[in-house]
Amino acid sequence: MCQVSIITVNYNDKIGLERTIKSVQEQTSSDYEHIIIDGNSNDGSKDIITEHQNNFSYWISEPDTGIYEAMNKGIDVSNGKYLLFLNSGDALFKPDVLKTVEINLKNNFDIVFGDLWVYRIDKTGFKHSYAQDVSTTVLKRIGLGHPSTFIKTKIFQKYGKYRTDLKIVSDWEFFIKVILREKVSCFKIDEIISVFYEGGISSSPDFSDLHLEERKKVFIENFDIYDQDFEKIYAHYNKINALLSSLHPDIDILITNNKSLRILNKTIGFYAFFLKKKRQWWRKK
Question: Model's pTM, two decimal places?
């Protein structure tokens, strides 16, 4: 068994795939395997895969129903103690990242995570730092970045893989389930693990409605703060987003950096506090 299984999901992104493969092959550590799950691409991705196939422990190219089914396929064939989902286009931050992380993986935490460098469509970038304490408040607002999070394979075996009925937020739902409900152990390392490139479905304005609907669904399933008050939050968010889009049509909705979503997050925090106090008051009556 190797220490880390790096799982890369790809569909018609040969340029991004090559960038991802290159960043993995540059690693100074050798205690890992690289798995490629391709969704039957027709853009030349398979040529890239076959060119580098000797560097993969496993690869396949076949149709799937979406990114989470593909990620689950990677889980099924993995041999590592920990899994890292570094999907097509994303890259490990520097050649010694895995070597640095390996020291922390030996402490046997269920989830070990670091920070992300986010590379925007306009070619600018910024460091997205995650909180040391993965609290309920943090996870209600945003999950962990899967390109910077190492998850024990046994966690998937025990609590299940990613839900395929969710097309955008299944990784967020998974973190809520295992961290908040099942109380798995987590550890933050102060290192940038990966570079995340904007442009995927989760950061695309074209899927903003689906993104919000799925978040609502997960909130209803997991948190009792969801009621008519919380419905107002989403209505308020939609108005703000429409206004910002009308002022500047190129405004994107990257979940970690969007102005309107930051307003939504603050509003969530306020309503979470308000509804908690409201429930406490009713219990006293």
Answer: 0.79
